[in-house]
Every structure is written in C-alpha cells, then in structure tokens.
Design a protein that fits this description.
This protein is an all-beta fold. The chain has one domain: Porin, CATH 2.40.160. About 0% of the residues lie in helices and about 50% in strands. It has a 16-stranded antiparallel β-barrel with strand order 1-2-3-4-5-6-7-8-9-10-11-12-13-14-15-16. The longest helix has 5 residues. The radius of gyration is 18 Å and the shape is globular. The two termini are about 35 Å apart.
Length: about 250
C-alpha cells in the first residue's frame, strides 16, 4: 500500500460520542462497525473490530497479505482509552503506548492533541527533544480548520530542524451524506493513527462520510451505498490519477 493512499494499521477524522434511536438518520448507538474490507490497486486488506462489555472498542485486527496486526485497548474509569498494546506476527512489530488525557486534549508519544470546545481536533503539536538544550521544542504543527460539518482543511507547518527537509502542506476534505462508520469510537483511537485505512477517507472524526479529498499530489471523489440506518456499506474512491479503490463495511446491532 502507498503512503498516499493507505496508512497501514495504526490516522483516522472525528469525535463521535452521540447516541441515537434505531432507524434515526442522525446515528444510533446500537449499531457498530465490525468489519471493513478493501480493494486497492490489486491488493486487499481487512479490518475487524471487537468490543467489550461497555460497548467500547477493545480490539481491532488488520490483515494484509501475510501480515496480521492486533491492537488491544484499555480504558480508565471515565471510559477514555489510556493504553494501547500492539501484537504482530512479524518481528519487531509488538509494542505498548500510553494515552495521557489533559485539560486541553491528550498526549500520545511525542504528539499533543488539542481539542476545541466541541471536542473536535483543532491541532496536533509535534515535540522533539533538543540535544543541545534538553528542552522539547515544537517541530511541526497541524492545524484543523473546520467549516461546520461540511468541510475541513488540515494545514501543516514545519519548524527547525524539520523545516530543513520538509515542505509545508495542506489537505482538504468535504463531507456529504450518510453517517460515519466510526461513529461511537473515541477520538483518540481515530486521530492517533491507530485505525488507519484509506488516507483520503481518513478524516472520520466528522459525523458524516467524506465525499472529497485533495492535497498537492492526489484527489479523490468518494461515493457510497447505504443501509437502512444510513451507514455506508460500500465506498468507491475515484482518484485523479485514474485509479479506483473500493471499501466494504459490515455492522452489528447490540
């Protein structure tokens, strides 16, 4: 999979805590995503989701060719994810990481995630320890500029020393009809790169499905088929380079 089109299991877009009644087009808490399969450039990949007794995502598994990655999630008493454990069938892929919640958002590794008053992501701050001063300096900032629930612009600015080797960039997303398949999954799992699938569909912290994606190199128009609950069952992403990818979604009631 290419980095432009796919991020192997790990982004994500949207804080989706709301609950709804069955058959309510605004979303329902008694339907949840269980499987995603993908057909991309001749390759196939799959994600499988499992939940605990509190109906929180507790484990998800990605299968790509012969590689299998299992991510387990532990929560605190506030039902916020705090520990992520990765197990793989290949050498060097295992590991464990901590999510630390703060008044402004949460920290994950070297990154600070800042949330706005609506609990949407407003910025990601990348910190790096200076070998000279032994102080953590800001080396990259990604700003999230929302236009209600209709569109999002991500603007990335690099600072020294990363600015020596990287150009600033921006991504643009538009959101259309239908309910995000990731509704109900905590924002920290969506935006820290734990649930990654298609980059142009990645910004799923919005309530609605992504209908368009563009950056300096790539753009995609995405269309959907929906079930009776207005959740997508199929997404077709057509790129400006002539390629087309397909994504299939399965759900369960609980």
């Amino acid at each position: 999979m290419t980095s432009k089109r796919i991020l192997i299991l790990g982004l994500l877009l949207s804080l989706l805590f709301a609950s709804c009644e069955k058959n309510n087009s605004d979303g329902i808490n008694n339907v949840r995503i269980t499987d995603i399969s993908m057909e991309m450039g001749g390759s196939t990949s799959a994600l499988k989701f499992e939940y605990n007794s509190n109906n929180l995502l507790s484990k998800f598994t990605e299968t790509y060719r012969d590689n299998i990655v299992e991510i387990s999630v532990e929560y605190n008493s506030d039902k916020l994810p705090v520990k992520i454990t990765r197990a793989t069938n290949y050498q060097g892929g295992d590991g464990m990481e901590i999510i630390e919640w703060t008044e402004s958002g949460f920290n994950f590794g070297r990154y600070n995630y800042i949330l706005d008053s609506e609990n949407k992501l407003s910025s990601i701050i990348d910190l790096e320890l200076s070998s000279e001063t032994q102080v953590y300096d800001t080396v990259k900032v990604i700003e999230y500029i929302w236009t209600g629930n209709e569109s999002l612009k991500r603007v990335c600015t690099y600072y020294p020393p990363l600015s020596q080797w990287n150009d600033d960039w921006e991504d643009n997303y538009s959101f259309g009809e239908g309910i995000s398949p990731f509704k109900g999954i905590n924002i920290a799992l969506l935006v820290t790169g734990q649930i990654e699938w298609a980059e142009e569909l990645e910004e799923h912290q919005n309530d609605k499905c992504t209908s368009y994606f563009s950056n300096k190199y790539l753009s995609a128009d995405i269309t959907y088929e929906f079930n009776e609950y207005n959740y997508p069952t199929k997404a077709t992403a057509k790129y400006n380079d002539g390629l087309t990818d397909y994504f299939y979604f399965e759900y369960e009631e609980y």
